[in-house]
Design a protein that fits this description.
single chain, 8 strands, 8-stranded parallel barrel, 39% helix, alpha/beta
Length: 275
Amino acid sequence: MTSRSILTYEARAKRHPNALAKKLFEIASSKQTNVVLSADVTTTRDLLSLADSLGPYIAVLKTHIDIINDFTPSTATSLQNLSTKHNFLLFEDRKFIDIGSTVQKQYTSGIFGISSWAHIVNASVLAGEGIIDALSQSISSADLSNERAVLILAEMTSKGSLATNEYTSRSVDIARQFPSTVIGFVATRELSAANSTPTETENEDFVVFTTGVNLGSKGDALGQQYQTPASAMARGADFIIAGRGIYAATDPVVAVKQYQEEGWKAYLSRTKQVQ
């Protein structure tokens, strides 16, 4: 898998075959940000407050919607409105991992109705390619191919993660089977070194979201391992996912601006726009 990380967001937007990936790169370029805010709060009020106050400085808002203890359909509607207002995408970090028929129900049905509002979801392929096939069918049947996409969870930043080696390679293999649905990976690096089998497709350009980015900590008591925006971008991240380092800061707006600045500086350096 050839890395496109040395190209600018503008160049990748122009050549990318997926409409949502194109939109993602255009947002990043126009707002000069590659920050994905992981809003791991537990109330609708806190979630919407973060989305509104930090929305101008981020490219994507990542949710764990099942930890919102007072979720209602209006929570999702309000998120959609703020997404439009501040021009960011919504990424529900659901980590689907079940048989295909169950995943389809989890995605389209139930109290959260994820497919109705989340532009991006992610999935583990531990159970095989059926998960991605199921999500692809749901997206296609609802005529949402230009508005919804999937990231495959290829690696994790937690200590002792088993998402390595063959699993990571198979993640790339499966992604290539679903080019209209899978736009990239959640990974700790760009995956050109992954020993995948299928031949690279024309205009292949997988987006890499890297988790565990924190400017002030190297880890937590539960095995999370952090890296900085600069180190993440140097390893091939296209978008940096930061949570507690921003929303738990004394002043989250000041914090998100710092992550935006550091992430953008690293991106410019990597794409040789600055020396």
